[in-house]
TrEMBL record:
Pfam families referenced in this protein's UniProt entry, alphabetically: SmpB
Name listed for the protein in its UniProt record: SsrA-binding protein
Record localization: Cytoplasm
Gene name, Swiss-Prot/TrEMBL: smpB
Domain of life: Bacteria
HAMAP family: SmpB
Main location: cytoplasm
Length: 157
């Protein structure tokens, strides 16, 4: 299992994923990117919310991760903001993921993008979708924590 990356090295988070899925396992994968994409990531021009991971021919690809090109992008490059990006993992991990994803209800979801040793890494999770009542429980828990925080804040005044 992958360690949680530094918050200072974070590029983007998929906050919606925690609301829609239960995470079983987390993996850290490398990403195959073009030069203009890396420059755009340094500027924070990325959105992971609609992203998901698919397996094709024994390889992992992230689809729906939108990297918006900079206005200063080179003229000889045709940037495609929603290009399918390949993820890099060890073969044993990919085989294990293929076996799990073929089970009913499991999917692969990108959680965040972060820097590690000068390279862009994508944290993905083997996830199971939440039912509607689970989502309501999540909202109720979140609102309960907010109420406690407000009460504690007002008490200390």
């Amino acid at each position: 299992m992958a360690k949680k990356p530094d918050t200072s090295s974070r590029i983007a988070d998929n906050k919606k994923a925690a609301f829609n899925y239960f995470f079983e396992e987390r993996f850290e994968a490398g990403m195959v990117l073009e030069g203009w994409e890396v420059k755009a990531l340094r500027e924070g021009k990325v959105q992971l919310t609609d992203g998901y991971v698919v397996i094709r021919n024994g390889e992992l690809f992230v689809i729906g991760c939108q990297i918006n090109p900079l206005k200063t992008a080179s003229t000889h490059v045709n940037p495609d903001a929603v290009r399918t990006k390949k993820l890099l993992l060890h073969k044993e991990e990919i085989r294990r993921l293929i076996g799990k994803v073929e089970q009913k209800g499991y999917t692969l979801v990108p959680l965040n993008l972060h820097w590690k040793a000068g390279k862009v890494k994508c944290e993905i999770a083997l996830a199971k979708g939440k039912a509607e009542h689970d989502k309501r429980d999540t909202i109720k828990d979140r609102e309960g924590k907010r109420e406690v925080e407000r009460a504690m804040k007002n008490r200390h005044r």
